[in-house]
Amino acid sequence: MAHATIRDVARAANVSIATVSRALNGHGNVRANLREHVQSVAAALGYVPHTGARSLSLARTNAIGVMLPDLHGEFYSEALRGIDAEASARGLQLLLSNMHGDQRGTETLRFMRGRVDALIIMAPDIDPERLLAHLPASLPTVLISCPDVSADHPQFRIDNVAAADAMVEHLVASGRRRIVHLSGPRGNRDAEERIAGYSAAMTRHGLSPRVLTGDFEEESGTAAAQALLGDTERADALFAANDMMAIGALVVFQRAGLSVPEDIAVAGFDDIPLARFVTPALTTMRVGIAEIGAEAVSRAAAILAGESDTEIRWVAPQIKARASTIGGAA
Amino acid sequence: MAHATIRDVARAANVSIATVSRALNGHGNVRANLREHVQSVAAALGYVPHTGARSLSLARTNAIGVMLPDLHGEFYSEALRGIDAEASARGLQLLLSNMHGDQRGTETLRFMRGRVDALIIMAPDIDPERLLAHLPASLPTVLISCPDVSADHPQFRIDNVAAADAMVEHLVASGRRRIVHLSGPRGNRDAEERIAGYSAAMTRHGLSPRVLTGDFEEESGTAAAQALLGDTERADALFAANDMMAIGALVVFQRAGLSVPEDIAVAGFDDIPLARFVTPALTTMRVGIAEIGAEAVSRAAAILAGESDTEIRWVAPQIKARASTIGGAA
DNA sequence: CTGTTAGCGCCTTCAG
DNA sequence: CTGAAGGCGCTAACAG
C-alpha cells in the first residue's frame, strides 16, 4: 500500500489536515497536547511529508541546481566539495547534474525547472545563452567561467590570461626558452584564454609560441608528450592547460628516460589534489575552485534573500612552484 | 513577472489546458495543425513545464536519489562516475547528497521523499534501518556496503574479509612478517571486516596481528607512519584499509629516508585513480566501485519496472600488485 | 486555537 | 478530437 499522507494522519488523529500541517511544522498556534497527539499519530503511521507537494504549494524547493561539465574527476570533484559544504551549512539540498553535451544539457536544465530555487552553472564550452533560453528568467543563476552572456547574471571569471602569462614568466625565469603549450579544446573559454596569455608572454620575451591542442584529458597529455619526444630540437618546457594533461605528459617523459625538470620542465593548471603527489610534484596554478563553488552558493542564497547581484567577480589564480619546474627545491 | 504556466499557453492558444498538455506531451489524439499551433505559442511564451508539479500528478519523478558518505574524494567520486553514467543512459536525473553525519542524513532522506522514484544508499557506518525508518517502505532502495538490515532490500556487499586476507597472503608471499594493519574507523562495516580478514590471515600464518586505528583520511596515514617510525623493531609492511591512508604513510616513510618497498612495503585498498600515480605505484585491492554504482542504478530501474529484487550481491575485490610491495617490477 | 476552502501546475478520466 | 472537472499532497488565508 502507498505511503501515508497528511490526510491519513488527520483522519487518524481526528483533526483537520490544516491542524496536522500546523502541528508538524511547529506553527505555535496549536494546543500543546493536541500537537503531541498529532505527532505521535504521525509517527505511528510512519508519515513522512511529501516534499515535492510541499514545495509546489510553497513555491520554494530549498534546493539549488548545479550543472557541471563532469561530476567526477579531480577538478570538478573539488568544485563540488566547496558547493556541498556551503549548501549543507545553509540547509540547502543539491540537485546535481553534468552536461553530457549540449543537447542533454538543455534537457537536464528543463528538468530543474520547478525543482530548484536557483542554479549554478559551470560551462566553459557552452553558450549559456542557449542553455538559459529554456529556463524562466526569474530563476537566479550564478555562472562560473562561462562564455559571455548578455543577461545580467552574477558571474565568476578566472583570470586565465594573466595566470598563463605568469606561468610563462616563471618558466622563462628558470631559464626555459622552448616552451610549448598544450591547450584545452578549442571553443572552451578557459582554454582559449590560457592560449592567449601564453602567446602574449612568449611574444613579449621574443620567443615563438607553439601550441599543441589537447582536450583536458590525461590521454591527450600522453599523446602530446610522445609527439614532443620525436622532435629533433626538443622543447625544454611543457606548459599544459590543466593538471591531468601535465601529469599524463610527465609520466611519458620519465618513462622515456628524460628527467624532469632537468631535461624538460612540466607545468599544469588547476592545482588538483593529485598535483602534489606525483613525482616530481607538479608546478601549477592554483584556482581555488572549491572556494569559488562555496561562494557561488552564497551568492545564489543572497539573491534568493532578495539582494540583487550582477557583478562579474574575477578570480586570480596563484602559482604553485614545485619540483617539476624548479629541480632541487620542492 | 513569474514564469508562464500551462494555463497561460492555453489562454494564448485559445484551447483548453488539457489540449495543451496533450499537444506538448505528444499524445497523438490532437489535430496536427492544432498541435503545431500550441507548440509555437508555447515556444513564443517561453513556456517550460514545471517538472515538480508534473511529477506530483504523475506520481513519478524520473529521478533517483543517491546518498553517499561524501561527494568528493577519489573513492566516492568514482562511485558517482558509475552511477551518473548509467543514470544518464537511462534518462534518469540524480538527486545527490552526502551524509554529513547521522542526524543530517535522516533529514536529507526525508527531503528525498516525493522527489525521487528510488534510492541508492552507501553508508558503511550508519545503520540503514534507522535511516529508512524515515522513508516510505514503498520506495525502492538499493544498499551498498551497509550494515545488516532486516528489510528485504537489494544489496551490494564487498567481500572485505577475503580481500584483506588475500592482501596479507600477498605480503607474506613476498617475505614480509611484521605486517601492521592501519584500519578505518570502528563501527564502519568495511573497516571491521578488513580487520577481521587481516587478523585471520595473520593468525593462520602464525604471525601476530597489530592493528592501528585510522579514519580513512590521509592524515591518519601520516600519523600512523610517524608512530611506526618510532618503533625499535620496525614493521616491514603496512597494510592500510584504504588508499588515502596508505599514500599518507608512503610519503612519510620516504621523507624519513626509508625506501619503499625495500625497507617497508605499503599496501592500500580501493584502487583509487591516484594509486597508480604515486611513486612507487601503490599495491591495492581494486573494488570497482564505479561498476557497482552503475549496477545499482540498473537494479533500481528494474525494480521501478516491476521486478522484485532482494538479492545480496557479493563483490570480490581484485588485487593490484604494484611497486610499493614488489620492488623492481611494476 | 481549529476547521473550511482555495489553490500551487499539471495530468487524466469522463463527457461531448 | 476537445473541453470540463477532479485530484496529486500540502500550505495559507479566512472564518469561526
In short:
Chains A, B: One of its GO terms (molecular function) is DNA-binding transcription factor activity. Chain A is of the alpha/beta class and 330 residues long. The first copy, chain A, contains twelve helices and twelve strands.
Descriptive report:
The structure is a homodimer of 330-residue chains. The termini of chain A are far apart. With 330 residues, the first copy, chain A, is α/β, with parallel strands linked by helices. A six-stranded parallel sheet of chain A has the order 2-1-3-4-5-11, with helices on both faces. The first copy, chain A, has three domains: 6-58, 434 Repressor (Amino-terminal Domain) (Orthogonal Bundle); 63-158 and 289-315, Rossmann fold, CATH 3.40.50.2300; 160-287, Response regulator (Rossmann fold, 3-Layer(aba) Sandwich), CATH 3.40.50.2300. Chain A contains twelve helices and twelve strands. Chains A and B meet through helix 4, helix 5, strand 2 and helix 6 of A and helix 4, helix 5, strand 2 and helix 6 of B. Chain A binds a DNA duplex (16 and 16 nucleotides) through residues 5-7, 15-19, 21-22, 25, 29-31, 34, 49-59, 114.
In terms of quaternary structure, the protein is homodimer
| Total count of helical runs of at least 4 residues of chain A | 12
**Share of helix of chain A, binned:** 40-55%
| Shape by Cα distribution of chain A | elongated
Mind telling me the CATH superfamily name of the largest domain in chain A? Response regulator
Q: What is the strand arrangement across the widest sheet of chain A?
A: 2-1-3-4-5-11
Radius of gyration of chain A, CA atoms, in whole angstroms:
26 Å
Specify which chain pair forms the largest interface.
Answer: A-B, 54 and 53 residues
Estimate the strand proportion of chain A.
Answer: 15-25%
CATH class of the largest domain in chain A: Alpha Beta
Query: Largest sheet of chain A, if any?
Result: 6 strands, parallel
Q: Quote the average pLDDT of chain A.
A: 91
Protein name (chains A, B): LacI family transcriptional regulator
GO molecular function, one term (chains A, B): transcription cis-regulatory region binding
Keywords (chains A, B): DNA-binding, Repressor, Transcription, Transcription regulation
Pfam families (chains A, B): LacI, Peripla_BP_3
